[in-house]
Predict the 3D structure of the following.
Amino acid sequence: MRTVGSPSAGAAQAPAGPVCADPLSAGGATTFEELLSLTRAGELGPDPAGLRVSVAFTTRQAVRHEGRGTGYRNEVLSLRLAEAVGSCAVEPGALPDGAVEDCAGADVARLLGHPMLPVRVAALDAYLMHAFPHIPENGARPVALPAGTSLEKSRVRADAVAGLLVLPPGSTVLVVGVVNSLLEALRSRGLRYIPCDLKGGVTEWGEPVATDALASAGRCDALLVSGMTLGNGTFEALREHAARHDKPLVMFAQTGSAVLPRLLGHGVSAVCAEPYPFFWLDGGPGTVHRYRAGCPGGTP
């Protein structure tokens, strides 16, 4: 998580501008549910009934970065399909016993219709990662995360995410999914923010955290939203708000990193996609992938 000022010495800098991409081939889907339906029908790639998830697993973490007064916990469901891993974050303890075992060995078509939304999200993410990997040909521009501490890597990732917002100083950003590094990266750019998270509470600096993102969206010039909103069912209302009011909607996505780029140009203006393994899992180098919609010719 970033302090105001420059990244740590030796940290890799995010490129000045991400690749711009027209909405990628998604059969005309403009919402998550439409994308899910098209995938189940086999219209975006291989028949999902003929593909099986080989490995299903959860990753749990508790975090308290050095120098921080607060911490947080995460739990992520991940599904392995061939070379791809799709993921969806959930509230710790929310997955019932047996959910992972139920996914292992299942065909993707069945999981795309699973009664649990996080399973559907992870299955769609795995399928789309398999069909549309994060490569330049699909509109992605990689940003290297250097080896380092969890705090150092978090700061560089925050710069990559915040750099997708093109706003004049003094603009207000709704931040859905409070990450202290991102808040500090916004401050360093002269941007104001309204932090929002279903858990509520306060930020590292004692700022109150709103719990109703949509109620706060009207007071903001842009939205910076966690992919976790896909798994808790709150994403679509935010996408609709951004599209209706022509506001930038930037997604930072460990959850649904391969899903959200398919919605570029349909309310989603940019995505910082971070597939598994995530930056917090080890101290080695990593990569995030940035996408932006609506630039002529696909140039930065």
Q: What stands out?
A: The mean pLDDT is 88. The radius of gyration is 18 Å. The first helix runs from residue 32 to 40.
